[in-house]
Amino acid sequence: MKLLKRCYAALIYLFLYAPILILIIFSFNASKSRANWSGFTLNWYFELFKDRQIMKALYNTVVIALLSSVMATIIGTAAAIGIHNMKKLKKKLVMNLTYIPVVNPDIVTGLSLMLLFVFTKFPLGLFSLLLAHITFNLPYVILSVLPKLKQLDKNLYEAALDLGASPLHAYHKVILPEIMPGIITGMLLAFTLSVDDFVISFFTTGSGVSTLSIIIYSMARRGINPKINALSTLLFLTVLLLLIIVNLRTSGNGANKKRSDLKW
Amino acid sequence: MKKNWLSYPYLLWMVLFVFFPLLLVFFYSITDRTGEGLRFTLAHFRRFMEPIYLKVLTRSVKLALISTVLCLMLGYPMAMILAGNHFKRKNIMIFLFVVPMWMNFLLRTYAWMTLLERKGLINTFLSWLGLNPLNLLYTEEAVVLGMVYNFLPFMVLPIYSVLSKIDKNLIEAAGDLGANQFTVFLKVILPLSLPGVVSGITMVFMPAVTTFVISRLLGGGQFTLIGNLIEQQFLYAGDWSFGSAISMVMMIVILLSTSVITKYEKENEGGGLW
Q: Of B9, B244, B255, which is closest to A75 when you measure between CB atoms?
């Protein structure tokens, strides 16, 4: 029985990882073929870095992910503190609004934002992409910070005030350090979601402005391209690294040692 | 502590970029732009009832259902294995299970293109065995495979999280009272895990029914799904009103079913992913 379970798990992991591993292996293949191994090469990686369109898209992706995750973290953390102090009914209303972009299909979020930009004659491009990314990142920051605020001991803040700290000073020295793990998790989550997004970017970008996802989609639609394999390998390693960091953070934080509560 | 004002920028943002855009979709879906200006109409919703579009709808639902059932069949045993204590390094097993989920889903889908294509690895292997190459890519089966591959973790994780919260004493008690392993599963484990199954089903079905990327890349554009229909109306046909009407229908169905399910989950203290 135990052996059977192990075999089943192994098969599922094989199913999950085989396509990714094959992609990675063939990114080092000398020929364009995906079936025959014809020698090791780093050629596709050089080609990748020489491709100005892809490099521009990489730059856009990173800039948008950085800016949108930082912006969403600032607006979202402030909002979470505000929401935490709201009365019950108002809180419920705001949380429902917060859940809309999480629950709504990406395609609807994307096209509704596109309609907004076109309707208000807002030029589609890098800036509209940034606004869209901040919008879908915000709920995730709030959902990461709110639980930390709930765990917070109210007396701490009041003690700081009693000891003569100004409200701002108390926030800075007492509340902020306590909720920091939630803020950082939220920011990393926002960053990853932004890098990963395709559907919403696809609808809210203008001609000539691409992110990596958009480039991959337009290349993949035309068929196989070894440069995408090289790109996949690099992206996979980046995601792996980010996840390891996030995971070490959450497990190092004594409050939720109980691993059964999955954060993902 | 009156800190409500801290959330005002956020509320303004959400009204501007979430609420107002959805209102626009609604507005487009019930109006017609004629020479004389705007006119109220329900024609776009009626048009969606035409046979060609209904066929797209049934195909989307059919493929999403098949994928959901397959995910459940493959995922439930996997969730049980992950929830059991069969491995020394359980955390790492779960971590490894989550990693592919975070890889760009276009790349995950693309990976299958390279495997399934005419000169791909699977066909090369077949011809090496002396068999004829098969048409694997650009079929309905390829689309289903892509959906199962992309959404399997969404089925496994909620079930896993419910299973690992089940009180082990209940299982032992059932055993002490004379139930065999199969009866324990049927009468204790399965009913207790239902909330996780329900949220798994929604988390697979919803993205599967709205996708347009998987059907485009693995189906080669031959199998129009409802997501492709919306994409076409907005980006190629330019019929925004019709596209909005389809989106409205899809959104209402999804928001309604999600709210029903979250209510069910709250009653049963189910294992949502968030």
A: B9
CA distance B15 to chain A (A): 9
Q: Using alpha carbons, list the distances in angstroms from residue B246 to A99, A205, B179.
A: 22, 22, 51
The interface pTM score, or ipTM, of the predicted complex is 0.84
The answer to whether residue A263 scores a pLDDT higher than 50 is no
Say yes or no for a CB contact (<8 Å) between B230 and A111.
yes
Question: Is there a contact between A100 and B18 if contact means CB atoms under 8 Å apart?
Answer: yes
pLDDT tens digit sequence for A131-187: 999 999 999 999 999 998 888 888 888 888 898 888 888 888 888 888 998 999 899
B244 touches chain A (CB under 8 A): yes
B85 interfaces chain A, CB cutoff of 8 Å: no
Asked if A108 and B250 come within 8 Å (Cβ–Cβ), the reply is yes
Q: In total, how many domains does chain A have? A: 1
A81: closest CA of chain B, how far (Å):
7
Cβ neighbors of B198 (< 8 A, separation 6 or more) are B261, B264, B265, B270
- Over residues B48-98, the pLDDT tens digits come to 889 999 999 999 999 999 999 999 999 999 999 988 866 667 778 888 888
Task: Write out chain A residues lying below 8 Å of B165, CB-based.
Answer: 260
Higher pLDDT, B266 or A259: B266
CA nearest to A110 within chain B: B21
DSSP string for B80-111: HHHHTT--S-HHHHHHHHHGGGGS-HHHHHHH
The CATH number of domain B50-91+138-268, selected from 1.10.3720.10, 3.40.50.1820, 3.40.190.10, 3.40.50.620: 1.10.3720.10
CA distance A84 to A86: 6
